[in-house]
Amino acid sequence: LDRAPKREPRSQPVTCYVLSTGGEGEFSGYAIEEVEEVMEDGSRVAVSVATVVVAGGEPTLERIVAGIELSVEGLEADAKEREEKKKAEETAE
């Protein structure tokens, strides 16, 4: 631990929560949100992160993977939109 980097942890692009409920109800969903991350130089950058939630009697790998794939599609779309917006702002200046 003495050699661990001394910086704030960065957000992970996708976080998964999987819960076996013992057969009580089924739920699968994901959410994408924009968060502000502080870079090493102190600047702040907007990034998108996703959360996948799968709960049910026996959560399947297929449901988890489907949630991750949908999240990645959304994250890629957000990144593309953010890049296009940045280019448009630079062109306007």
Break the fold down into its secondary structure elements and pairings.
Layout: E1 14-20, E2 27-38, E3 44-56, H1 61-92
Parallel strand pairs: 1-3
Antiparallel strand pairs: 2-3
Explain what you see.
This protein has 93 residues and is an alpha+beta fold. It contains one helix and three strands; from the N terminus they run βββα. It has one helix at residues 61-92; strands at 14-20, 27-38, 44-56. The protein has a three-stranded mixed sheet, with helices on one face. The longest helix has 32 residues, at 61-92. The radius of gyration is 18 Å and the shape is flat. It starts with 13 loop residues before the first strand and ends with a helix.
Key words describing this protein structure:
alpha+beta; three-stranded mixed β-sheet; single chain; 93 residues
Number of strands: 3
How would you describe the shape? flat
Provide the spatial order of strands within the biggest beta sheet: 1-3-2
Order of helices and strands: EEEH
Strand content: 25-35%
What is the average of the pLDDT values? 86
Helix content: 25-40%
> Biggest β-sheet: count, sense, barrel?
3 strands, mixed
Structural class: alpha+beta
For the termini, the CA-CA separation is: 47 Å
Q: Indicate the low-confidence ranges by residue numbers.
A: none
Alpha carbon gyration radius: 18 Å
Instruction: Give the count of helical stretches.
Output: 1
